[in-house]
Amino acid sequence: EPEVTQTPSHQVTQMGQEVILRCVPISNHLYFYWYRQILGQKVEFLVSFYNNEISEKSEIFDDQFSVERPDGSNFTLKIRSTKLEDSAMYFCASSRQPYGYTFGSGTRLTVV
Amino acid sequence: TQLLEQSPQFLSIQEGENLTVYCNSSSVFSSLQWYRQEPGEGPVLLVTVVTGGEVKKLKRLTFQFGDARKDSSLHITAAQTGDTGLYLCAGPGTYGGSQGNLIFGKGTKLSVKP
């Protein structure tokens, strides 16, 4: 069964540092997403990406966040200057059409 | 603001029992999805319901979409320990487009004891 692969599985970073979370979506999928889940809270939408550009983003996805699909296979989420409140599980997802998601296993980001 | 409220928040039952969990909203959704999430893993899609009144079955799991498309239920027959997990409902959100973003409920944490 095809999988969405996320690396690293855990990342600890100092406040103010930049982090890049990496995802390899399923190869024939066209829509790509990042979500986050703060411990004990809801899964929250961050951004969707289609046709090499951001198609939708939430109010959480401010100027500190950016996404890239640098080489046709990877899909990255960059947080420029991490804050304590950025600590969460970050999930990448992909789909062939809107809503038919496959999620990755997530990256647990801890900002200290 | 679209919200999905799930109940109960926690459910602990014995193996073999039946259970129903609920997902409710004051908003109409074009579709709803149910996911199951294990600790430390991403949500796994179980089913998508699209038509008001629709019933879908996945082995011992029965999913229903309300006639008004504002609510959904998940019924598990003869629960097994392998059904333990967090059950999430999700529906299309709106951030100005229709490119697939979802809003999620907080989930029902199910524990099935042997």
Element-by-element helix/strand order of chain A: EEEEEEEEEEE
CATH class identity of chain A: Mainly Beta
Number of helices of chain B: 0
What overall geometry of chain B do the principal axes of the alpha carbons give?
A: globular
Radius of gyration of chain A: 13 Å
Secondary-structure class of chain B: mainly beta
According to CATH, the fold-level topology of chain A is Immunoglobulin-like
Brief sketch in words of this structure:
The complex is a heterodimer of chains A (112) and B (114). Chain A is built from no helices and 11 strands. With 112 residues, chain A is mainly beta.
What would you note in describing this structure?
The complex is a heterodimer of chains A (112) and B (114). Chain A is an all-beta fold. Helix content of chain A is 0%, strand content 51%. In chain A, strands 2, 4, 5, 6, 9, 10 and 11 form a seven-stranded mixed β-sheet that branches. Chain A has a four-stranded antiparallel β-sheet with strand order 1-3-8-7, with no helix packed on it. Chain B is built from no helices and eleven strands. In chain B, strands 2, 4, 5, 9, 10 and 11 form a six-stranded mixed β-sheet that branches. Chain B has a five-stranded antiparallel β-sheet with strand order 1-3-8-7-6, with no helix packed on it. The mean pLDDT of chain B is 93. Chains A and B meet through strand 4, strand 5, strand 6, strand 9 and strand 10 of A and strand 5, strand 9 and strand 10 of B.
